[in-house]
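Shipment paperwork, digital attachment
Item: protein structure file
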Amino acid sequence: MKMWRWCAIAGFLFLAACQQPPAPGPAAAGSETFIENRDIPQDWSARGGEQKSKYFEAEMTDVRKRMISGLLGGCYSHLQNRGEMEACLRKGLVDTFDDSGQGRSNCKSQTDIDGFTDCIVLGNMAVDLAKRLDANIKVDPAVWTGRRPFADFLGKIVVVSTIAACGDAKTEASATTCMFDYLQSKLTVPEALTKKCGHDLSTGERGSCLAQAATVRFLQEHIARLPGLSI
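Attachment content:
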């Protein structure tokens, strides 16, 4: 399961948004379109699909082990039958991550387990982020399985929500401070994670770090529901 890319995707999108903080003063029409087509890689693997989290390598390693052991623990009795094993893994993923109740229908076209896993996790992460950021934007079915729609959606909810919260800032510095304060308060990431995203980092790096922290938090909260298996 290629979990490193979940951090890479979220981190890249937050970085793109946070490098362009809300402009001081009233938001201009169309100002939410910060992420251009050229900013989105043609293939996520070009950004290092298997690359490790820059800020949370240990946490993501732990998440990966716990997720795999938990899913195997719940499906161990089906180990000798590939079809039953995959069906069990898919059910485990839905039961663990599909808080929205939309995953089973939106991800049914994913025939391989890696694609199904990405769809269930990233789709529900998008729904979760939209709720946390008070973004009244519908999560279109294409967001779950399409690279471009997912990128557009994540970029839009981050930028639109921060413009709404910080659009009256008088200076770029105050806008940037407001943006990070707002994101940290809304994403409810534990301090143990956000302390790695300090002011010593550049604006873009802090945005990427915070996105990865939010990804780790989302995964940790959900895999806690799995039964587990010692490995």
